[in-house]
Every structure is written in C-alpha cells, then in structure tokens.
C-alpha cells in the first residue's frame, strides 16, 4: 500500500513540476515579447516625445537636445580658455606664417615680419559643427566647424621698403567667416584615443581687414597697400587653407600620412570662348584667361591676350598639380586686358575635379558668372571651352594622353607608331647632349557630308551655303562647292590635311552663304584634334556656333605617322 502511495505522490509531483515549468516558460515568453515592444517603442521616440515624457527640470546638465545649445555650450567654454588659446596660437601663427610672408614679399618691399601679434580678447564663435562621415575612415574622425570672428587683435607688421623706409603697419578690423576642418587620426587604444590632430581652413568664405601705418598714411606710398594685402592673403592661402594641413602630434609616432602630398596632375587645354561680354566702349574686349586650382602666384597660369575679340581662340595647354581630387576645383577667370589701367573681370567659372574620370579626356563648356560665391547676377557673360584630363599618380598609364608634349615611353606613342617609326625609335642617339621628342604628325581626312536646318539668309528664305575648312596653325585651307538655294545641303566631299603637330593644331570650319556680290558668314565650328587622336575615326553632328540654327554632319579620320626630332637639352 505504501508503495502505491509513493508512486502516486511521485507522479503527481512530476506532473505538477511539468505544468509549473510550462507556465513559467509561457510567462517568460510573454514578458520578453512585452519588453521587445517597449524597447521598439522607445526607439521610435523623437526628441519632442522625450521632452513630453521627461520634464526639463530632470535633465542632467550634460544633456542638450539642439545644435544651438551645443554650440552655445562650446562657445562659452572657448571664451573661458581664450586667454590661454591666444597665447599658444599667437606663437604658432608667428612661427608658421612669418616664413611664408617672407616667401611672398613683393618686389617693392625688402622684408615683412611680425612686430606684435596677439589675437585680442574676443573669442571666435562657432555657428555650426558636423562630422564628415565619408572622409573619416575607419581609423580617424573628421570634423568641420563653421566659425565667425570679428576680433580685436593686436597685429603689427614691421615692413621695410626697397627705399630704406621702415613702416610699422597695423592690421585692424579683422572680419572672418569660414569652415575649419579637424582630423583626429589615427584612433588608438591610449588616452586621448587619437595620435595626432590635423587642422586646416577648409573653406574661406570671407576675410576682411584694414591696414594702417602707425603715425602715418599708407596711401601716401603708391602700391604698397595693395602689395601688403596681397601678401597677407597669399600667406593665409599657403599656410592654412585646405588642402594644406598643419599637424599637431599628441602621442609619439609617424604621422607622415597626414601630410599634404600631390596625388596627380591635371592637364588642361584652354580651347576657346564665345559670346563674351564686351567691356570696351570703343571696339571689343581684349580677353585673356587666368586658371588655377590654388590661387597662389606660382600655381596660377595665364593665357595670351587676344586683341579685339569676343570669340577668342586660345588653344593653349597647361598642367596643374592636384593635391585632393575630392575637394579641389579648377577655377578660370576671363579678363579684359586694359593695359596699364589693369584688367577688368568679364566672368569666372569653376569645375569640381571629382567630376573627372581618371584617364578620360572630358570636354566641357563652362558658363561664366560674375561671382562664384554670390550668384545673384544672372546676366549672360559668355562661355569657355576646356578639355581636361586627370592623371593620378601611382597607376599604370593605360590611356592615351594627347596633352603631353613628350610622348616617349607612353602608350600613345606605342598606339600611334607605324612599323617604320618604331624601328626609328629604337635606333640609338647619333648626337651628344640631345633629347629625342616625338611630334604627332599625320594626315587628317575630313568628309563634309551635309548640313541640316541652316538659317535662311537670302530674301527667298533660302541660302547658298558652302564650307571653308582651315587648319589654324598651318593656315591650310580648303572649301566645298556651293549648294544652291537650300537649307539642308549635301556635299559628300572629302579633304585631306597634312598635319605637322596634331597636339597643337585646330580645325576651324566656317559656313558661308554665297552671293554674286558678297559673302555672308553663317557661323563656325572650332575643334581640337584630341577626339580624333584618341578614337582614330568618328562621325558626328556638330552645332554651328554663331548661327540661329543648323548643324553639320562630319566624318573625321586620323592616319598617324610619328616624327622624331632631336633638340639640344642645353
């Protein structure tokens, strides 16, 4: 009897435990589900929702919810430490900027040095802050801070002129707005968790200041004020403006990877401009172009001046060093040359280098504007045509570079060589100190197929068009027959031109209307030989510049023959 009782008791307790564990598991599962729902609900909370739930008097002092509050806290802390920052930054500026001032000292002056340098009692104000995720990388943090400073610094420059006159010049009323970039890199497992800080002026939006001679008038010496101002701006550009980076080591280590290094070259062919604004009262403007990536005297290129022309053709090649393709721009400014009176700006334009595909020639037409920063003036000022080629360092050149005048050992030389020229290329030098350079010589075949929708120029609503083809450098000309009384002429005529230097040659195609007593120009097409050099042969429709309407249908073919020329390297 006792045995059966114990069996019953054991079975009952086992069943009870099973039921209890099952119930507990269900309760635990329900609690987990409810907790997950609660966490999901909190995750969907916005700042406004949290403010409704938690009254403001319960906020911890370090909790802020708006960008304005963050910046206010940061500006308050900067004001507190500004006296110490002033002392440290003044010495840093003196040490880094003074050698650059000497470097850019104009010819009219003999020396420029700091006599006094303090940043004053007014601290800068930060108006924005952001983390640049796309450029931070896995081992660093990149921050950008918008800054405004209307300071009261005490900056006195000791300036000596070539005439032996010493001028103490005070820099006053400084107003500055811009964006500073801070790079904390590399991230390490040692306090303060980063090895070095690199700082740079990422964007200079505005920099104003006035110059005053202590105890005198600076305007009494012609040209000195402008020369000093230009020197100061050049020093700021070369010492702190991005992509220049100033590195402050925090922990011992090698931080050479943070230093400014060239990453490639940009080849620019300045082709032409059209429909430029006329700045002259009598006659037409005399345009020239200034191009730069960094606006420093030794990094700025200038074209030749084309007299009395609103549609100038330059056909000039320039090369620039690229230091940060992701942020830098090519800037072009077109001026009217006024001789001794200086130059007057016609218009300017910019192109972001990140828009260029490495190793691919890009042809662009850039519309000129009055100001690159404040584009409120919508007046049409003309356009500029460029051909651009970005060549990054450290990559094998598998593309053809039609802008490089020295083609030895390049892929273009191999691509364009005929068997005869290859044999000649391998021949040893027969002369002493001579350098062999290759001239891209060949035959350009141009087939003028037809015209389309030409503008009517005769009284009967028709035209008698013919085409004149001119090689600009060699001045070789050919022309088609006249197509009578038609706006859609068909010629199908082919012309061959022997080109001695295809790199610097241009093809100018003009469309004329033929009449018995006069000839009227309808428009023109200007093209370099870059495309036909790269492609070898192509067929395309070209819009006629200067005409109200109309296109030309052309077929171009290039038959290369390299010519080697020895020249003295002395």
Automatic annotation (TrEMBL):
Family matches, as Pfam families: C2, SMP_LBD
SMART domains: C2 (SM00239)
Keywords: Calcium, Lipid transport, Lipid-binding, Membrane, Metal-binding, Repeat, Transmembrane, Transmembrane helix, Transport
Cell compartments where the protein resides: Membrane
All copies of domain SMP-LTD, residue ranges: 67-251
Topology in membrane: Single-pass membrane protein
GO biological processes: lipid transport
Gene Ontology, cellular component aspect: endoplasmic reticulum; membrane
GO molecular function terms noted in the UniProt entry: lipid binding; metal ion binding
Keyword Phosphoprotein: no
Main location as per UniProt: membrane
InterPro entries: C2_dom (IPR000008), C2_domain_sf (IPR035892), SMP_LBD (IPR031468), Synaptotagmin_plant (IPR045050), Synaptotagmin_SMP (IPR039010)
Domain C2: 245-366, 418-542
Entry's family note: Belongs to the synaptotagmin family.
Protein name as catalogued: C2 domain-containing protein
